[in-house]
Amino acid sequence: MTDDQTTDLVTYRLDGEVAIIALNRPEKRNAISDRVVERLNEAVLRATAEAKAGVIHGHGAHFCAGLDLSEHAEKPLFDAVKGSRRWHVIFDHIERGSIPFVSALTGATVGGGFELAASTHVRVADRSAFFALPEGSRGIFVGGGGSVRIARLIGPARMGDMMLTGRVLNADAMERWGGVTYVVGEGQALAKAVEVARRMAENAEFTNYAIINALPRIADMSSEDGLFTESMVSALATMTDDAKDRLRAFLEKRAAKVVAPGGD
Ligand code: 1HE
User: Fold this and answer.
1) By residue range, what is the domain housing residue 69?
2) Taking the model in full, what pTM does it have?
3) Of all protein residues, whose CA lies closest to atom 5 belonging to ligand 1?
């Protein structure tokens, strides 16, 4: 385990093949300032270079209270545009980099915090987690990619409902809406997220890359273009040495079978 990129705002450690990144500003409920998002970017790029999967969580009781409103309130218009565009670049390093990320969600997962979670590939919430998009009541708008990513996760109508009414959803309600795919007991989000990330790290690296890069692009295409692209990506994956080894291992009965769920 290494701990050498820890800054005051974001912590980083490598646990085997899994990079564990955490927002570290609990006294401000992990609100994302300009400095926080840059430190997050450094950690994400390092994880992409040396890990096979990543976990993003928040120190303290809350995942993230969103954009740092004290900093935002002072920004001239064009700086606000450039700030939003910077979030887009950085969150894109998460969503369409080369390794999958899991977010472990606790407490407030609000505004830009939900947008950060939406840029990860798997979301695990514990029962303390709550979700809101209070931009309407603050007189602002989502700017961290939420209008694309959150709208695709839960649907634009539900996202509009959250933004217009300020309603707050608990973890079970958000699971029903498709915004998270694992709900665990309070205090268990990080452990479950690490377990999920370790499992993903065992996959073929090229397949993980194809999953995180091809799926969102194919979702933007027509059916016809999507099916064609799928055939190309599928054939490419089969050409890798990894695929050849893994397919042979299965045929020679050296690989794990798919096992029916145990009911959990
Ligand atoms: C903050 C922020 C923040 C807390 N920016 N400082 N996000 C929001 O509208 C959510 C605003 N925050 C809250 O509603 C609450 O703080 C929480 C529900 C998250 C947590 O409540 P609580 O009672 O545990 O903490 P608190 O006492 O409200 O906050 C503790 C401190 O954190 C306090 O500062 P202090 O100096 O008085 O101790 C708060 O001011 C500070 N704090 N949240 C700055 N967000 C790219 S566009 C994205 C657009 C958005 O993200 S909009 C949603 C913004």
Assistant:
1) 5-201
2) 0.96
3) 68
